[in-house]
Amino acid sequence: MIKIAMVEDDLELADVLTQYLKQYNIEVTNYEEPFLALSSLKIEKYDLIILDLTLPGMDGLDVCKEIVKNFNIPIIISSARSDITDKVTALQLGADDYLPKPYDPRELEVRIKTILRRFNHNNEDIKEEKTKLFNLDTDKKEITKEGKYIKLTAAEYEVLSLMIKREGFVISREDIFENSDLLNSDYENSGSLAVIINRIRHKIEDNPKEPKYLHTIRGMGYKFTNE
């Protein structure tokens, strides 16, 4: 169920939209007073806000500004105002869409779901980024773990950066040598890669003997996990 807060003082319109959206599994709670709507956002969790601009006691643009400032929630402006300045200002303030009245409720339903798909996808991306323990900065040639710089030799950096770039995939010893400017056949023949892997583990693992991030896949190579 999609939960929406509507800020609309035209109660007849609010009722029509509420009944229409209900059939699409969208639950609407309407607030005629903007101050009451802002207070409710501190208590109730909504997926999206439909906001009129002409409201009693507080202009809708000011309401929009307060919502953007204090809450992470998408906003659709629903307004009869025809001034292009209002539309531009609303979008500049952070509104996600502007739907001029009158409009077909079907268009509102489509816009709601389109915005929520985009909004939820963006939030997932942000969440994914936040769960990454290791981050690679190729410009600075630096690798951090939970924001803390890891001191690496040039060879260690080359190996670990390749692992991070191919996170989740098994990388053979041959792949490592083919993609390295520093490691050559002498390293391969001498077994020095195993030494480099061991040094990296001592720098990134809580317990190098039981690695959680840099795994040896017997007979195949190595695999790196970043979570």
From TrEMBL:
SUPFAM superfamilies: C-terminal effector domain of the bipartite response regulators, CheY-like. CDD domains: trans_reg_C. Residues 124-226 form the OmpR/PhoB-type domain. GO terms for biological process: regulation of DNA-templated transcription. It comes from the Bacteria. PROSITE patterns: OMPR_PHOB, RESPONSE_REGULATORY. Signal peptide: none annotated. Residues 124-226 bind DNA. One of its GO terms (cellular component) is protein-DNA complex. The modification 4-aspartylphosphate is found at residue 52. This is DNA-binding response regulator. It comes from Halarcobacter anaerophilus.
